[in-house]
Write a structure and sequence with these properties.
mainly alpha
Amino acid sequence: MEVRGLGESEEVAEAVVWLCSDAASYITGQTIAVDGGFAMPGFRGS
């Protein structure tokens, strides 16, 4: 995925809303990084 730089608070909020929805009801005990790919191995930024 393309990394566009620093994220907006709305982008993090969208992930939180999804996690609180029925669509994410099967997810348990996971760490989900909402960082635009920053923590991916090999990320260098621009």
